[in-house]
Structures are given as C-alpha cells and as structure tokens.
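Here is an idea for our session: we take a single protein and study its fold together. To get us started, please write out a protein record for me. Once you have written the record down, we can walk along the chain together.
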Amino acid sequence: MATVIFRDETATGKPLTDWEVSGLPERMTVQELIRLRVREEVTRHNARPTSRFNGLVRPDDAETELNGYRLREPRRIDWERQAEIAERAFLANGFFILAGDRQVVDLEEVVDLTADPNLVFIKLVALVGG
C-alpha cells in the first residue's frame, strides 16, 4: 500500500497547503488521483460545513476569494460534482499536476505512487485584461 502527499503550490513554487492519504494502491491514474483528492477535501468540508471552501476547484454558485471560495451560505458539497468540475479544469489547463519531477498531462496516465508519492497541484490564474 502507498501513501500520497497532495500539495498545493503557487506558480512560483510557494507551498500553500499539503496533506496525505495512506492505504492506496501502488499505481493510480491521474483521474483516480484527482477524484480521490476532491473526495477527501469535500469530505473534510462536509464534516463541518462553513461558508468558505478551500478546495481544488470552485463549487457551483461560489465566489472566488484569495486561496479559496465563498459559498452563499454554509452547505454540504457534492464530491462527485466537484470531481467532474476538477476533471474538466485539468483538461482545460485550469491547473496542472507534478508527480515527482514530471508533469502529468493525461487523465489516463498511470502514476507509480511508490516512486512519485508527492503530487503537486498548481492552479493557473487567468490574467486580467487578457
């Protein structure tokens, strides 16, 4: 069984947050890892819903804030809906993932978690004015 460390960083490499999940298979696809990450962060939010969500992608009807999202009111979030949003964001280059020292580029790409247990997620921010 493997342990993976999910880490969020800025585009300049500044660490924002990290956490780990253990008891995983040694190999998982990028899609499975994104879904796992989203499920874990939504589960943490849903355990104590607040009007702020710190996650990979913006929930429906939420406003973007610095390092998170503001919900109109505290509520539970559907992890499967969030996973769909995250998969689309990955495919549209809304964020990218580094596994070890390489960028993964395809949802079906398999990551060996024994060799690359550190997954770095870097969100890309659209420039104002284009």
Q: What stands out?
A: The beta strands are 2-9, 15-24, 27-29, 52-53, 62-65, 68-71, 95-99, 102-104, 110-112, 118-123. The chain is about 25% helix and 35% strand. The longest strand covers residues 15-24. Residues 2-46+79-123 form a domain with the Ubiquitin-like (UB roll) fold (CATH 3.10.20).
